[in-house]
Write a structure and sequence with these properties.
alpha/beta, Rossmann fold
C-alpha cells in the first residue's frame, strides 16, 4: 500500500493544510502527517507544542469527516546533522513512498536520500499561511476564518492568542531572563 508523508510545522494547522490533506488522500490510500520542529514551542514562530499541534490536526481532520483509519499523525524533532536527517526521519515514521513539503531543505535532503518529493499545492498561499494567521492573532484581526473550527476551539482553550502575545513581549525567551 502506498503511503504519503506530509511534513510541516503547522503553527497552526489551517484550511490550506486541510485542503492539501484532502488532495493527497485522493491519490494515496494512507497519509502520515508529521509535525516538524517538535521540540520548538513558546516561540514567536512556534508558539504551540507538538502535542497541541497533533491535537489540533487530529480534531480538524476528524471534524472534517476524513477517514482517520487512513491517517497517522506524529511528530519528529529537528537534529543538527542535516546529512543524517532523512535517515533519522525514516527511523521515526512508518514507511512512506512520497513526501510532500513546502520547505526547500527537507525537499533537498529527502531527494538526495532517494525519496520522491513533491511540492505542496497550497490554495491561496498568501492568505492560508501560518505566519499570516499568527500576525492576525497579534493584531486582533480575524484569524478564525482561516483555520478549521476545531483548531480555533483548541487555540481558545489553551489561550493560544494570549500565549503568543506573551511570547512577543520577550518574556518567554530564557536568554532574556
Amino acid at each position: 500500500m502506498r503511503r504519503a508523508l506530509l511534513m510541516g510545522r503547522f503553527q497552526p494547522f489551517h484550511l490550506g493544510h486541510l485542503q492539501v490533506v484532502r488532495d493527497i488522500l485522493e491519490e494515496f490510500p494512507q497519509l502520515i502527517v508529521a509535525v516538524g520542529s517538535a521540540t520548538f514551542n513558546y516561540l514567536e514562530k512556534s508558539p504551540f507544542t507538538a502535542g497541541e499541534r497533533i491535537w489540533m490536526i487530529h480534531e480538524a481532520l476528524a471534524e472534517s469527516g476524513l477517514d482517520m483509519s487512513r491517517i497517522y499523525i506524529t511528530a519528529y524533532p529537528n537534529i543538527e546533522n542535516n546529512a543524517a536527517w532523512a535517515a533519522h526521519l525514516k527511523s521515526l515514521l512508518p514507511p512512506f513512498h512520497v513526501a510532500f513539503t513546502g520547505n526547500a531543505l527537507p525537499h533537498i535532503l529527502l531527494k538526495e536520500a532517494g525519496i520522491e518529493v513533491r511540492p505542496l499545492e497550497m490554495i491561496n498561499r498568501e492568505l492560508y499561511c501560518a505566519s499570516e494567521i499568527r500576525r492576525r492573532m497579534l493584531e486582533g484581526e480575524d484569524w478564525e476564518s482561516l483555520v478549521p473550527p476545531a483548531v480555533a476551539r483548541i487555540i481558545k482553550e489553551i489561550k493560544g492568542v494570549e500565549r503568543l502575545k506573551f511570547i512577543v513581549r520577550g518574556e518567554s525567551d530564557p536568554l532574556h531572563w
